[in-house]
Amino acid sequence: MMLKPTAQAFVPKGTVPLTPVKTNSPVQVQPTTFESLGIPPQIIRAIYDMKYETPSEIQAKALPIILKEPRRHFVGQAQSGTGKTATFLIAALCSIDTRIQSPQAIIVAPSRELANQIYNVGLKLAKYSGITIKRLIPQPDDSDDQFGVGITEQIIVSTPTSLNDYIQHGEVMTEDLKIAIFDEADEQFVQTKPNYSHSLPILRSLGPTTQIVFFSATLTAISDDFYTRFLPNCKKISLSTAQLSLDEIVQFYVVFLSTDEKLQFLGEIFSRLPIGQLVIFVESNQTAHLVQSHLIAQGNSVGIIVGGGEMSGAERDTVLSQFRSAKLRILVSTNVISRGIDVDAVNLVINFAPPTDPNTHLPDPETYLHRIGRTGRYKKKGVALTFITPDEYKLMSFFSWHFKKDVLELTDFDELNPFFFGDDKVDPSQATKKSKLDANAAEFISRKKVTKIQNKRGQMETYVSFGQGGGRFVLGDDEEDEYDEEFPMDEFEQFLDEMTVKQDPSMADFDHY
Ligand SMILES: Nc1ncnc2c1ncn2[C@@H]1O[C@H](COP(=O)(O)OP(=O)(O)OP(=O)(O)O)[C@@H](O)[C@H]1O
């Protein structure tokens, strides 16, 4: 039996639904030019220098909401590579009173690489406005980067650790900021993430008049309770998981029996395909070194960026800048650069293994999405390959099911030719091969917690939880079966707690689909 999406999204009781942009809001008529967004001419001039002709969808939708007075907190979700960086930088620039020479806006990003990238885009956008920007990230050659110097720049770009340090030392006053922006907010405000203990104190230090802005491609892991507490009355733009998967990226998995086979495949790929630049994501520093040395031995230019204190900030910066300038063709990294990094020529991303949560070993769809989003940037096309072993089918099945997107099995290099050669390179619409993953998805999902509840209409509804999310299935006639979008695990559990739940151990019918 087939599962069909329902029109109405499931909203757990007691939580606040994400508010879509209302049709009668000021953004009803979507602005199609930067001028119509009310951006000052000095900033527009800089935008045109950057060759942006028209606002992206998130820019057109979010800016009028963020900049509307009186300011309100804002949460914005949009796919990878769709221009969130310029959205929040323009918002920051438009918030500055140019007569005041002190920090009025902070932008916090979860990694030094991302903070540096935001800083550099910020400099370009600010170039005609006279607005000053400072990055507070340890810089080897930056003698200003000391406590006690006094910060007069109007916009601060930093990482959670660095900024928290500056706040603790009384170097940055956050009480009266006009706007505080947190990029990749779910990487900063989910309790299990390493940044949480640094980002939360920053958030708590903000005064009541500071406008708080969150951005990410993935935000479901932040609970509505959190928003209610820290961003009361916020406006939100959100996407369903189906909307999140990037149409410009064609996704494959490749089955290998050993690590040696994976390395052999990597060794061949450059001689077989016209790859621009390639990012390979690995699970550990050790594997990063293994892959790097194998590829270097074959004459490739390969850099690695790994965390855990193994590389200094300066070393990481050097590798990324060599990759940006194409001195390095391949970058091997752990999740350190899985979010936000924007390098135009990357037309292939490889997951050396499917990403899983290191603690639970469950599939990690957010990381999968962010990683593959390093290609297919801003309307460009890209290919993502995930290497799996036979017992990892179920993980790929889960990603395919979760994002409602085919992930195809690659059995021969030639199957990639349509995506790398020809006029319309990397056109996902050519991916007609049938995915084999559906059956595996069912197998994987059926192992998880399942609960049946009778709804108000007397139908039996089946609630399924897995990993960080869950889904609702209404069991009726075969043709009428349906499911809703996934929702965060904590909402799901809260919902179950609030209901009179009848556990139904006979899930035979569910296992069938
Ligand atoms: N209006 C625009 N017109 C053309 N290009 C744009 C526009 N806005 C942004 N871009 C370009 O799109 C690319 C992706 O933008 P950006 O890095 O902001 O993506 P993002 O939404 O933050 O993605 P991620 O979720 O991966 O961080 C960049 O190279 C940027 O210069």
UniProtKB/TrEMBL annotation:
Q: Which UniProt keywords apply?
A: ATP-binding, Helicase, Hydrolase, Nucleotide-binding, RNA-binding
Q: Where is this motif: Q motif?
A: 32-60
Helicase ATP-binding domain: which residues?
65-237
SMART domains attached to this UniProt entry: DEXDc (SM00487), HELICc (SM00490)
Report the SUPFAM superfamilies cross-referenced here.
P-loop containing nucleoside triphosphate hydrolases (SSF52540)
Membrane-crossing segments per the record: none
Query: What range(s) does the DEAD-box RNA helicase Q domain occupy?
Result: 32-60
**Top class in the EC scheme:** hydrolase
What is catalyzed by this enzyme?
A: ATP + H2O = ADP + phosphate + H(+)
Domain Helicase C-terminal, by residue range, is 265-419
Q: Which InterPro entries match?
A: DEAD/DEAH_box_helicase_dom (IPR011545), Helicase_ATP-bd (IPR014001), Helicase_C-like (IPR001650), P-loop_NTPase (IPR027417), RNA_helicase_DEAD_Q_motif (IPR014014)
Pfam families per UniProt: DEAD, Helicase_C
Q: What is its EC number?
A: 3.6.4.13
Reproduce the free-text note on domains from the UniProt record. The Q motif is unique to and characteristic of the DEAD box family of RNA helicases and controls ATP binding and hydrolysis.
The family assignment reads: Belongs to the DEAD box helicase family.
Quote the function comment for this protein.
Answer: RNA helicase.
Name of the featured protein: ATP-dependent RNA helicase
